[in-house]
Amino acid sequence: MNSLRVAIVGSTGYGGVELIRLLLQHPKVTIASVISSSNSGVSIAEGFPHLQEILSDELDPIDIDLIKGKADVVFTATPSGVSTELIPRLLEAGLKVIDLSGDFRLKSGELYGQWYKHKAAEPQYLERAVYGLAELFGEEARGVDFISNPGCYPTAAALGLAPALAAGWIDPDSVIIDAKSGVSGSGRGLNLSAHFSEVNENFSVYKVNRHQHIPEIEQTLSLIAGREITVTFTTHLVPMTRGIMCTMYGSLNGDRTEEDLIELYRKYYEGRPFVRIRGKGKWPATKEVAGSNYCDIGFAADRRTGRLTIISVIDNIVKGAAGQAVQNLNLMMGWDEQTGLRLTPIFP
Amino acid sequence: MNSLRVAIVGSTGYGGVELIRLLLQHPKVTIASVISSSNSGVSIAEGFPHLQEILSDELDPIDIDLIKGKADVVFTATPSGVSTELIPRLLEAGLKVIDLSGDFRLKSGELYGQWYKHKAAEPQYLERAVYGLAELFGEEARGVDFISNPGCYPTAAALGLAPALAAGWIDPDSVIIDAKSGVSGSGRGLNLSAHFSEVNENFSVYKVNRHQHIPEIEQTLSLIAGREITVTFTTHLVPMTRGIMCTMYGSLNGDRTEEDLIELYRKYYEGRPFVRIRGKGKWPATKEVAGSNYCDIGFAADRRTGRLTIISVIDNIVKGAAGQAVQNLNLMMGWDEQTGLRLTPIFP
Amino acid sequence: MNSLRVAIVGSTGYGGVELIRLLLQHPKVTIASVISSSNSGVSIAEGFPHLQEILSDELDPIDIDLIKGKADVVFTATPSGVSTELIPRLLEAGLKVIDLSGDFRLKSGELYGQWYKHKAAEPQYLERAVYGLAELFGEEARGVDFISNPGCYPTAAALGLAPALAAGWIDPDSVIIDAKSGVSGSGRGLNLSAHFSEVNENFSVYKVNRHQHIPEIEQTLSLIAGREITVTFTTHLVPMTRGIMCTMYGSLNGDRTEEDLIELYRKYYEGRPFVRIRGKGKWPATKEVAGSNYCDIGFAADRRTGRLTIISVIDNIVKGAAGQAVQNLNLMMGWDEQTGLRLTPIFP
Amino acid sequence: MNSLRVAIVGSTGYGGVELIRLLLQHPKVTIASVISSSNSGVSIAEGFPHLQEILSDELDPIDIDLIKGKADVVFTATPSGVSTELIPRLLEAGLKVIDLSGDFRLKSGELYGQWYKHKAAEPQYLERAVYGLAELFGEEARGVDFISNPGCYPTAAALGLAPALAAGWIDPDSVIIDAKSGVSGSGRGLNLSAHFSEVNENFSVYKVNRHQHIPEIEQTLSLIAGREITVTFTTHLVPMTRGIMCTMYGSLNGDRTEEDLIELYRKYYEGRPFVRIRGKGKWPATKEVAGSNYCDIGFAADRRTGRLTIISVIDNIVKGAAGQAVQNLNLMMGWDEQTGLRLTPIFP
């Protein structure tokens, strides 16, 4: 059987390097090209010694012809703004694309401009991109040639809220998302807010009400609920490397027990292997999904206040980026969703 | 000038050890007795080598007569349930008491029984205890002989919410408190949930809607707002040792800008040196108060959702325990509130 | 093809849980029984929620007949002293055994008693156990029915020192091993020295000159060097979960450059896929092997002092425990050493 | 009484900010000017919100006349190479100087050039600088106008080795120093090696045999031993913010017990309040000196190998930088060495 040849643009970021880890153990795929806008000609193992004797390919420059010659599918794990220009050219060259940047997630170019502070891609490409959140919109991604991979926070938030919103069990105007992320979410770039001495033994909050993932979350939740939804969204930085937790609040419509919610969610995610619903009185922790593609969800329903608390966790680099991208590759190629992704979380 | 002689019951817990650190640099106080229910006769520096050549007193047993002979004021940093019995005896012996346990914070013994799962202290002592949250109820503590020191979460939550609630700027029925704490908050006891390999590189949630600090928070906020308040309260464990952040949400009554809030809070806390209000668009981080008695507060008002986000941080062992207890000692003795507490946060 | 049925005694410790993670992805193995001296009848996923929907087998008690009925090979990841009694019974029942405890690593029962402070196993079993450090004694393990899995520190230390000692390039009387380990090395037991608030933001030293791995290291190095070797060995606790680094010092015999050493080591470990030798001026870090079975080694030769510094790193739970045990299973069964162990380190 | 007016050049680095924390509680000093080569005119509290309402002075530029007008003593916490030029001008202007950079620690300009890779200061200033390691060379610093503050590693290493070397108890040719530091040691600059996601849950080694502190350590030890000493020195990065441990090895001359060593060291450091010698079988941990000016030392003497292991710990920013600088200020001014430095370590 022939292996699918894949290329990774942005292979020297954390998302790119995690793609390498996952694709190396994917039975149907060969990494044909690791690409970086800088350092071309240097072995990827030079900057990432953990890859020594595993993958020592030289970094390729971003060159459409070169990519076309080497690969069938391209992952673009590029900073926001780069995919906007690059992906149309990749698609025109006949390549299939899975984009891990935020450039094609919003259907509205106007919203994109507002939140990302630069120009959106051409509308035709925004339209063409299939938003690859399989657990909510799954079959849409099968067989397409261009998938936009969801953001880390939007994945954790939407998976946690969708069933309750779809069922009308919580008031769509009451949704508050208190999100916490490990530091790897902000990438490998050098910044005081990722400096060990500033982050370690510290808990901080950032971009309150201003995070560019807000419109993405609202777009998904509005689709699910069938009406416009506006959310309060706060992001915090946790002194750890990997993991996201979303603690979400909504006012319950009617009297729902935790058992009701567990049943609702298990039914909603039936056949979706990467979502795990915790039992009554159990809540997930980020370490329980570390290194894996799972999203784990738990509940607390409070009679005193009439509010529901939903807790969802993911590994931000796996289900929140590279793992979900491989899941989308599997769907794109018509393979079993779990191919290469049956990863047991690494504990402790 | 004669030094005030103080005794610390529970001196081998984290609250007790921090009291030692703070009282050692207090100009008007002498540590007369360090007391522990076990290990009496052993030097405190044996179990806490950081105290070598600083304080090597032998641990005293819990013995009312002994304490009475040695001390004027007693700090009780004991597990919940111990103070219930001990403090009446200390008071009857004519000692002044500052209690760091939760046993005398709730005025209602019934609520105490419900949330703490054991019997409350005698009503007369619950009544007699002055709840020592100086920034909200300050002058009440001056000159009294029995102060109940507030809990760590209730301190951070109430200081963050009080001015907005008192002013009627947020809907009292809309309050959600998403709280995060370092691991030291759960003490020095051995427990899997404090095991390094389980906590490190992990973010978890616990006691959702069930934390015993809920009625304490509600008691304070109800007093401030002049009506019954019920809150949603979630507690998370952060992989760090010290620090609490409360991220709090409320629906704004009317259109209030962040400038309005900053002005409101600065006026409310005027003359209260331990509360610092951040400027517009600035939010505090836990490390910015580490080792100090400050509570720092910041805001985000969101026009899109009509909600206010309030962020407050404290060092859970200082303003959330030992530091506030020393502040209460200062008030009890009629001294300047800041005596021995002019601590610059330790950074980084 | 029939899967090999394996049982894990001590499956609720960190070594046991890591064995589960590795064996779940091993193509030739089925986990037939997870065994614990306590909690039998409870699902393993109850205590380890990261295994939910992956492995929910109930824990079996330690019962030789039960094990015999279910399994072909038994991993014993038990505390020191338990294997001593248990393994003879497993072997007599015709089971193959790979022991992760320290009970069968020392050939001398007397030395065992001296360092482990309890009675050694019967001499015949000490003799029968094959010490499974494949990179040094590889073919000995092929086809045997009882393998003693090396300790974490001895693995990192011996792999780092063996080639230089075998070649006579360093003075055998000059060896100093300064070792550092993550906290998981001390297991899941509750102990103040694993309490997050005591370990975090702390670096400490323990068991100086007294660690029970000392005679194991000396036994291996003496075999390699062909003469008695005594080492200075210091162990430190690093505020991290996984990883061991050994920084090792020896006086160079003759003038050896780093290039010489790299060549020597690459030749020595030729055909051994789990040892990776860093290039000149490069030294490994623990994160570069995290989650994988690699041992990475680097060098610094100092003309000023005539000393060689060797740095080796492993993941203490993988190459230092569960991964090496699976490697030994592969050898025992005559399979390719890397079966199920082609693990890319997880980074970051 | 008039306060001494001090200026801090480089006040926005970690050393500078810690000087501020310490000097704010110094009873005889006023911070007259906080100076930074950039950002002049901006409040120091802008970049360091932990200083809000404590110190909000605007940053001054580096301007000799300005400094001369405002201050009596200047601390220079500047990157290596800057003090070389700046300090002669400060001295010529009649200011007293305590230099925290490495520019004036080596008496040999040639050695400086070799290890620091840029040109040394004028010989007359190298001569004039008094090396301020009070516990070894104490009285030399009294009353002088220019003190060079020792490096962090050299402080921990020399304090740990000096008494044994001075007594001739260890072979001067056998000294190996295995040093470990928290990340703050490398400052606030942005660098991949201080990036949280790369450092956290990682233990690494750097600059093996090449650290610029090597000649400083050798200069001190040679003075103490009365002969040339060459050491092997390895530096490691610990995933924590503060703290240094040096684990040091030497061959014992004669049979010395741990009791002998404890007695030797206690006598050697008699009257030196910042060195604490641990009791038999006790070794210090970095957290036990955190935030304080202590250097704690412990021993293990090994009959099996004839080697001595010495363990010393300091807080790298306090005794390794700012605290020692204040100690030197006290000596320079003829004050009690401990003025403003009676700091209890912060635990946990």
From TrEMBL, chains A, B, C, D:
- Annotated pathway: Amino-acid biosynthesis; L-arginine biosynthesis; N(2)-acetyl-L-ornithine from L-glutamate: step 3/4
Q: Which GO terms describe its molecular function?
A: N-acetyl-gamma-glutamyl-phosphate reductase activity
Describe the location of the Semialdehyde dehydrogenase NAD-binding domain by residue ranges: 5-144
- Top EC class of this enzyme: oxidoreductase
> What Gene3D superfamilies does UniProt report for this protein, alphabetically?
Dihydrodipicolinate Reductase, domain 2 (3.30.360.10), NAD(P)-binding Rossmann-like Domain (3.40.50.720)
Q: Which EC numbers does the record give?
A: 1.2.1.38
This enzyme catalyses: N-acetyl-L-glutamate 5-semialdehyde + phosphate + NADP(+) = N-acetyl-L-glutamyl 5-phosphate + NADPH + H(+)
Report the superkingdom from the record: Bacteria
Q: What is its main location?
A: cytoplasm
Name where it's found.
Cytoplasm
Q: What does the sequence similarity comment in the record state about its family?
A: Belongs to the NAGSA dehydrogenase family. Type 1 subfamily.
The record describes the protein's role as: Catalyzes the NADPH-dependent reduction of N-acetyl-5-glutamyl phosphate to yield N-acetyl-L-glutamate 5-semialdehyde.
The name of this protein is: N-acetyl-gamma-glutamyl-phosphate reductase
Q: Native species of this protein?
A: Ferviditalea candida
